[in-house]
Amino acid sequence: MGDYHFVYKDLEGASTQWDDIQRKLGNLPPKAPAFKPPPFTPASDDQPKDKTWIDSKTSEELEDLEDNLDDDRFLQEYRKKRLAEMQEAAKVLRFGSVIPISGSDFVREVSQAPSDVWVVVILYKEGIPECGLLMQSIEELALRYPSTKFVKIISTDCIPNYPDRNLPTLLVYNNGAVKGNYVGLHSFGRRCTPEGVALVLCQSDPVLNDGHNGNEAIIEGVRKRFIEKVVADHEEGGDDDYSSD
Fold this sequence. Notes:
Layout (H helix, E strand, L loop, with lengths): L6 E4 L2 E4 H9 L25 H5 L3 H8 L5 H21 L5 E3 L5 H6 L6 E7 L4 H16 L4 E6 H4 L10 E6 L2 E7 L10 H8 L13 H21 L10
Parallel strand pairs: 3-5, 4-5
Antiparallel strand pairs: 1-2, 4-6, 6-7
Helix pairs in contact: 6-8, 8-9
């Protein structure tokens, strides 16, 4: 007589011949179905591959994705566009600070500057309070308008025997020619603020440029800042004389 209790393993797991016979006779419940893992499906990125998705990637990530994405052509074209935009922005935003120069640098840095660049020159001397006050405003404007070139030079290095009583002096150049000449701090009113200096510089020409807006938008922004500054100081009870006369 055979051994009905012989244990063997099939695809459904451990069992015995006796158990199989009893199941056929209905004395045991059917065996549980064999466990089958779900079919493998690769992870999918639910985020759509649109402009926002591309903007969130770094240059290195874009290079890695370039070989794997189905829309390689779109990615390549977009990368070229982004690169061109970055190059254009780098070309426009080329300054952003007050550059110190010497007398030997003046022709190269000021007179020979590109025709599309406005150059603001401050003549100064250390130890003169008025020079320090105007320099603070000029430094702030240089940050605010990085497409305008701001340079500073010791007055006597630029013009021998230039009188200290005329300091500080602002010279405005464009295309090799003098477009403005502001002698003394009184040219910018009794208060020298970045907003007041900006308003004076833009009264006749669009001297200031931030690299993003057109001339009209820049001038309108300068006027708006000036008015907001006057109103704010007036509300604080300060001197509201901002005339440039």
